[in-house]
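Holo prediction. Input below; ligand is D-malate.
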Amino acid sequence: MFKVLITDKLSDLGMAVFKKESEIQTEEIIGKTPEELKAIVGKYDGWVIRSGTTVTADLIEAAKNLKVIGRAGVGVDNVDLEAATKRGIIVMNTPDGNTISTSEHTIAMLMAMARKIPQAQQSLKEKKWERSKFTGCELNEKTLGVVGLGRIGTNVARKAKGLGMRIIAYDPYVDPEKNKGHEFEIVTLDDIFKRSDFITVHTPLTKETKGLISAKQIAMMKDGVRLVNCARGGIIDEIALFDALKSGKVAGAALDVFEKEPPFDNPLLTLDNVVCVPHLGAATQEAQVNVAVVVAEQIVEALKGGRVRNAVNMPSLDPKVLEELKPYLNLVEKIGSFHSQLAESFIKKIEVEYSGEVSKFDTRPLTLSLVKGILSKGMSESVNYVNALFIAKERGYEISETVSNSVADYSSLIKVTVKNEKGTHILAGTVFGKTEVRIVSLDGNNTDFTPEGNMIWMAHEDRPGIVGHLGTVLGNNHVNIAGLYVGRQAVGGKAIAMVNVDNDVPEKVMAELRGIAHIQDLKFIKF
Ligand code: NAD
Ligand code: MLT
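Structure of the complex:
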């Protein structure tokens, strides 16, 4: 018998999926504090949540029997993924079930804001007849800037185009070529800010997108621009938005989501030119049924030992094979992540060569893991082992794979060449012993380092003093070096260095490092 805990309201049709399973027993326990949850989570095998429950590392630690967490929805930013992964708990979501609802909601918010419908309704309910006060603006022939062209962004862009809007879009991880047939004009982020009458954001909330729209970006916008956020609170900086709405630089904002939810003490709620609702993007009967049924089916399948669908932190594999493949999966995902952080531009081609012992495995999950690593930088949590290849195909990546059982220096070698519009990088890695993951070659230089933690990648000329100079700058800025690996092709020729550092290197320090003579390129890499 498997016990499943449900801590956010799940639609009846979702509950019905569980009820017909004799081996599954559900308990719906809603509204408990973290302390109360901690006391009970230990007895459950499965846990169903929506956005109302935050699954912290502390709760995961206490959930001794937990095998799977199912998120009825897209964002898993309320689950400590690292802690779950460390404990081997599968975290799954339902990436497609609320795309339509959230897209329609975005359009509703856009229109409500343009025509001041909530404000006008409030006024009429107060028995006022203020027709001129609520003069709005048309959407027709206005420019809508769409930031993030994933599932929801693309859907919103298509719908808004149908309303006669001119669509310009920005997504650094989508090849502009892909959109040729779609009639969206793909532009730079600065162009979005400068040219749009309305801007709508549809990215995940990541380190990169937090504060993507802040005071500096708002200053670049047209006077009277209007902003929509139906993605995640914090993508538009709330303090900067408040100031701009107050000054009139931003004429209106439509907000479904907030940095802190519920946002009861948020000053944005006091402004007349803000249209706001309590995170209702996915709040339709259809979406709630979709996500509830799918999450329940997925949890039943996973607990009964069947296939794993939409896992965001694990490949869908037979447990025995998975155990053997684990170090290689880890290696290729890190190679993928490294490549995505090195690439200067849209990735076009991915060539992967498996040689030696690793070639005895089915290499498809490895290539999936590699692609997942490559996509991890820009996509929301919904990239997983099931959909990574599909998304990569959508983005127009050309992926080729060769397998050979002979290899010169290592028992196994995985070499990955990634071509982007501006250049090519080649990485090769191996596994020492059973678990030690190493990068043994980087752009033609022999190396030997473990891809982990914070690293600085440096391409430079092989001259005396450069590494010393780098160490001095880091030292002066209190950045401690934990390890250093230098490789070169010939004396005095091109060289690379990988430097392990104990903490994040601020951009100001990176800029200072870039100023050192004979350093050609430098990047902060996080594994
Ligand atoms: P998705 O993964 O399909 O799309 C996200 C897109 O953002 C990707 O194409 C990615 O390339 C792009 N992106 C990543 N970083 C970027 C950056 N720095 N600049 C521009 N683009 C960037 O995800 P989705 O299903 O379309 O969901 C989009 C967002 O909406 C997520 O934040 C999700 O959590 C949220 N969401 C909210 C609700 C709601 O109720 N309000 C419902 C569903 C989803
Ligand atoms: C999601 O990420 O799916 C949404 O925020 C919807 C929700 O949880 O209500």
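The two ends are 39 Å apart (CA to CA). That is the main takeaway for now.
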